[in-house]
Amino acid sequence: MSNTIPTNLKYTTSHEWVRDEGDGTVTLGITDHAQELLGDVVFVELPDLNKTMKTGEGCAVVESVKAAADVYCPLAGEITAVNTALAEQPDLINNDPYGEGWLCKVQVQNKTDLTTLLTAEDYKRNVESEAI
């Protein structure tokens, strides 16, 4: 199992990561663990710009040679940017899940919702418990 879990991010039990950009927006992607489980990513369906998302609503689909996985929006808000580079290079998710492989940016409705997400340590425990 990969142990790449940056401590500056927040996480969900469904393997999304969230980076607070400090300006009311967050960047969203899938974790290293998630991309490892999926295998080689071959296609990414991104959300529409300016779409309003509810917490827990599906916002993207990541397809690999093994499976397709829904990505859930961990915080309610509006999609303000999508990573268009993934159309040509979906494998950025495999190669750099916490950097160039980001999926979208969300203008968060309620910043205090960030406190409901997992810390890196909590996420690590969650992943380890799944492996049992």
Model description:
- The protein is of the alpha+beta class.
- It has a single domain, classed as Beta Barrel (OB fold (Dihydrolipoamide Acetyltransferase, E2P)), CATH 2.40.50.100.
- The protein is 20% helix and 33% strand.
- The chain is built from four helices and nine strands.
- It has helices spanning 32-38, 85-88, 92-95, 120-130, and strands at residues 10-11, 16-20, 25-30, 41-45, 52-53, 58-64, 68-72, 77-82, 104-108.
- The chain has a six-stranded antiparallel β-sheet.
- A hairpin with a 4-residue loop joins strand 2 (16-20) and strand 3.
- The chain is globular and about 35 Å long.
Concise structural overview:
This protein has 132 residues and is of the alpha+beta class.
Derived from helix and strand composition plus strand pairing, the structural class reads: alpha+beta
> How many domains make up the coordinates?
1
What is the CATH first-level class name?
Answer: Mainly Beta
Main sheet makeup = 6 strands, antiparallel
Separate helix tally: 4
Kindly report the spatial arrangement of strands forming the biggest sheet. 1-2-3-9-8-5
Distance between the termini: 12 Å
Reported by name, the CATH topology is OB fold (Dihydrolipoamide Acetyltransferase, E2P)
Strands, count: 9
Specify the oligomeric state.
single chain
- What is the helix fraction of residues, given as a range? 10-25%
Q: List the uncertain runs.
A: none
Please write the string of helix (H) and strand (E) elements: EEEHEEEEEHHEH
Q: Which outline best applies?
A: globular
> What is the CA-atom radius of gyration, in angstroms?
14 Å
Tell me the fraction of residues in β-strands, as a range.
25-35%
The CATH superfamily appears as RNA polymerase II/Efflux pump adaptor protein, barrel-sandwich hybrid domain
* CATH architecture designation: Beta Barrel
Report the average pLDDT across residues.
Answer: 95
